[in-house]
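Table S5 (text form). Sequence records supplied for joint modeling of the three-component complex.
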Amino acid sequence: MAKAISMREKKEKLDTVTIYIMGQGYKVPSSLTIMKAMEYAGFKLKRGVGCRAGFCGACATVYRKLGDYKIYANLACQTKVEDGMYLTQLPFVPANKAEYNLDEIKPSASTMLRFYPEIARCLSCNACSRVCPQDIQVMDYVQYSLQGQIEKAAELAFDCIQCGLCAIRCPAEIPQYHVATLARRLHGKYHMIAPDTLEQRVKEIEEGKYEKGFEELMSLSEEELKKRYVARDFIDQKKA
Amino acid sequence: MSFEYIKIGKEEKEFISKIEDISGQNLYACYQCGKCTAGCSFSNQMDLTVNQVIHRLQLGQKEKVLSAKSPWVCASCLTCTVRCPRDIDVAAIMESVREYILRYEPERIERMKVTGEKAKNLPNIALVGSFRKNTEL
Amino acid sequence: MKYSYFPGCNLKTNAKEYEHTAVEVSKILDAELVEMPVFNCCGTVHSMASDNTMRRIAPVRILSRSEEHQKELEDTNNTVVTLCSMCSSTLKVVNEEVKEDEEMLQKINWQLERDNLKYSGHSEVKHYLEILRDEVGFEEIVKKVKKQLKGMKVASYYGCMLLHPDKAKIDDSETPTVMETLTLALGAEVVDWPYFKTCCGSYHVVDKEDIVNNQILKITEGAKKRGANAIITACPLCAYNLDSQQVFLQKKGIIKETIPIFYFTQLMAIALGIKLENFEDHHVDPKPLLKSLGLI
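The corresponding structure-token record, covering 673 residues in total, follows.
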């Protein structure tokens, strides 16, 4: 005769894995991401958590797996748990950011070296690229910055989410993501042309063209806002 | 004539052995001919000349070698290595003194400060070379 | 003939004319320099510590990347060509080291494999001067000369890295002749002088400028004393030191007249009929000399 299985027991028939958080083992369902698994285990995340969508770079995690000597790193919100994961969260990576005024500097290798002379220490070991959760060729953009090829550096570094894992692994102590930011800013300011529609729109905003519309939206109640949101214009993708 | 008491004990022997290890050279092959010093482009700016550095190393005089300016004046031009009649890589020995300092006694590191106007024009290759020789990972 | 060309970190910053003239000249001489698509800094000066494998990764990475590039080029051989003397020396030394020490090569390859690269150990490294002497030949260059560099009295400055260490030298280390023969091939006059390989001070220009100034004074005064009106070099760091520090010393009143510094490919360009336009990286203005000789 079939025995009634309570909801509790049903839950415990889930496929679970053991992960180690702060050295302590926890059994968590194997389908969860690291972040969800930590919360399942009872941790309330106040630091090292952000958009939960792989975009903000807050949840950098370094881990090892049982029986494996390698060091792995990834984003906690994007990585599924594996049995034997030994986890450490990195909510903050120390990396001094240089101060500069974009109007006063030009895109060149000297500029990059002036603010980040450490890039001359790059060993080309590629530890940075291997740890990048966005699969960016970090070493290559650092090398491009050293060579003064700012455009190539900025293009390679486009997907960077500033998680800091590269800077932590670098033996030459380069803050790669800050170097990337400088390259991207220089590229944006000096090489790329802003669309004139953008300049036009900025002007309109400064002239107050949209003030009334904003004020109206701010005065609506939550109900009315929701109604308006649902009823907004859609472009019929099939017709477009 | 002046005399100095030289001690060659365990510490000195360890130092000699470490320098030979890092450089991969046999310090005792040097017979003090002085060709290295004669060829060195920077001899006149060193406090201990190249052959004097090797001699002090042979005698394990750690303090004297580590406090000399010579390893930091050396520009790795390798003229000494090319001219040594005993085929000793003299520049490697100078480099191993630098490495010894940088690996074990960090307060002697020659850290450079690149600031302002000068940094605007320095070729990056100069910074690469300077960091390679004056800093350790 | 196309060669896999490794620029190094400096040829695109303040030695752009060196690269530009070299590439143009290489096309005329059918020994074309084709730049590697991706490259990294070689980490000059090479590490002389026997136990520092990490500092040898960068040069081997370059060699393995060049091997990948050589596969894409038609009509090439297994050579990496550089213009920068310091890169040439560093790459050659490490190349010889990993050819002799299989264990070291294996260790480094183990690192590179994770980036889908591997160095087979079968490439050669050559400085462009070697290609000009051995593959192109000076007679070919003489045939292609359109304008003889009459009136130029050239002192050839080798610096240290073209001739040191023994594994990496491109010519006899005490009596080299390749740059002098090139000078003659271009129709200029050779100045014989003893400071052709006195070290310029190299990276000391960063924090120990006095050392460099000492050397530059010796070298440039020596060249002028023997009647030279130009110095040619093959290394961007030597060129920078010789050039910029002369201006500095002139401002301090230590030297009165300056002597212009050229890359050997700039003189080749003038002789082979390529117009030189960009002099912005020169600190000592070479235009007065070139104009007075009718060369620009």
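Note: The two ends of chain B are 45 Å apart (CA to CA).
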